[in-house]
């Protein structure tokens, strides 16, 4: 069996050497335990945070510890009456090809209903983040305008599509012409703007003639700068992520914008609220029901970016923070 452990805490952009591949003996399940073979490992932006020991909402991975991560696995041996060999389960078993579990934190995935990888994406943590963050914090109303960046990604694609279902005008922001074309033509956003092309503020203003009522924050950085002047009175800003800053080593140069932003929150009566997907566990059943239905009706589409080979996980995580992924990023660790 193989696993990746955290070898060193990255400074700035992670290096592949910050993660070290180790071999270990496939463990034997004890009483009440199951042995799992990892099929898919989810790669997510929060993993950059777990590599750092800066104060956060979750404890860091210790040096030498197995990297955390969500997985879909197959039960290959079971001493637990609730699980049979061959069951497919969602868990948080980390960056390893095999793992043991007492079953308490596993959820079965029915491969006859959906592709099993969707439990890590559209029907999993990122989908739930989008659903809860938009509906509970964004409070969308038909006819309003929503802007979301990382729009072709796991969270952003769902935010925009759900907002379209709720009758909003939806403007995406994405990196590059291919992603923008996909967001408009396949996902059905009203518009999509390339944040890498010149004059982002001007093009965003043109795309939002009635201003912005919801800015679903995934990235911060220059995208946030372009959004701020367009916000309407009583706009809502669910703060989900700030990926443009995850590799920062120092505060951005230039004047301190906080006093003027703080004043704008007052004068425009903005609602700015941070969200963690774990805050919304009570919405899980509604989420599963609604999104499964929308998938079946073809009202929600999703795209996966599947990297082959467990050994390529570190390189792929580095790429995620550069925008090299196109869709929900997964590593195929083993074939079913
Ligand atoms: P994505 O699939 O969207 O992948 C990340 C994308 O971020 C990249 O593809 C890239 O898209 C974009 N990006 C990277 N760097 C920059 C940059 N400097 N400026 C602008 N865009 C950038 O990932 P997820 O959907 O999993 O995550 C999206 C956001 O949601 C992240 O901020 C993540 O931390 C957050 N999140 C928060 C959760 C919570 O509970 N609060 C739960 C899950 C996710 P492009 O090429 O289009 O720029």
From TrEMBL:
Lineage: Bacteria, Pseudomonadati, Pseudomonadota, Alphaproteobacteria, Hyphomicrobiales
Name assigned to this protein: NADP-dependent oxidoreductase
A Pfam family this chain is assigned to: ADH_N_2
PANTHER family: PROSTAGLANDIN REDUCTASE (PTHR43205), PROSTAGLANDIN REDUCTASE 1 (PTHR43205:SF7)
SUPFAM superfamilies noted in UniProt: GroES-like (SSF50129), NAD(P)-binding Rossmann-fold domains (SSF51735)
UniProt-listed InterPro entries: ADH-like_C (IPR013149), ADH_N_2 (IPR041694), ER (IPR020843), GroES-like_sf (IPR011032), MDR_fam (IPR045010), NAD(P)-bd_dom_sf (IPR036291)
The organism's place on the tree of life at top rank: Bacteria
Record-level Gene Ontology MF annotations: oxidoreductase activity, acting on the CH-CH group of donors, NAD or NADP as acceptor
């Amino acid at each position: 069996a193989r696993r990746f452990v955290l070898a060193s805490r990255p400074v700035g952009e992670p290096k592949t050497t910050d993660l070290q591949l180790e071999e270990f003996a496939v463990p034997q399940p004890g009483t009440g335990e199951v042995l799992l073979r990892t099929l898919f490992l989810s790669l997510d932006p929060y993993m950059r945070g777990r590599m750092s020991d800066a104060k956060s909402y979750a404890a860091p991975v210790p040096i030498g510890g197995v990297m955390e991560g969500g997985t879909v696995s197959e039960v290959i041996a079971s001493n637990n009456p609730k699980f049979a060999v061959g069951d497919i389960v969602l868990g948080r078993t980390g960056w390893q090809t095999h793992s043991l579990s007492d079953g308490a934190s596993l959820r079965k995935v029915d491969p006859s209903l959906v592709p099993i990888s969707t439990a890590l994406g559209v029907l999993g943590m990122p989908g739930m983040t989008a659903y809860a963050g938009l509906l509970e914090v964004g409070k969308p109303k038909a006819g309003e305008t929503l802007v979301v960046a990382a729009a072709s990604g796991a969270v952003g694609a769902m935010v925009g599509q759900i907002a379209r279902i709720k009758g909003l005008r939806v403007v995406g922001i994405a990196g590059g012409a291919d992603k923008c074309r996909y967001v408009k033509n396949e996902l059905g956003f009203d518009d999509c703007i390339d944040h890498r092309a010149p004059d982002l503020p001007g093009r965003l203003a043109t795309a939002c003639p009635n201003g912005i009522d919801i800015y679903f924050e995934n990235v911060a950085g220059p995208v946030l700068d372009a959004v701020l002047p367009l916000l309407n009175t009583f706009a809502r800003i669910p703060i989900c992520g700030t990926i443009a800053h995850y590799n920062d080593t120092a505060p951005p140069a230039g004047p301190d914008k906080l006093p003027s932003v703080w004043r704008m929150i007052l004068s425009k009566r903005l609602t700015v609220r941070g969200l963690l997907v774990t805050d919304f566990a009570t919405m899980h059943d509604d989420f599963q029901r609604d999104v499964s239905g929308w998938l079946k009706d073809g009202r929600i589409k999703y795209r996966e970016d599947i990297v082959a080979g467990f050994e390529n996980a570190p390189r792929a995580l580095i790429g995620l923070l550069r925008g090299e992924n196109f869709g929900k990023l997964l590593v195929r660790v083993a074939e079913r």
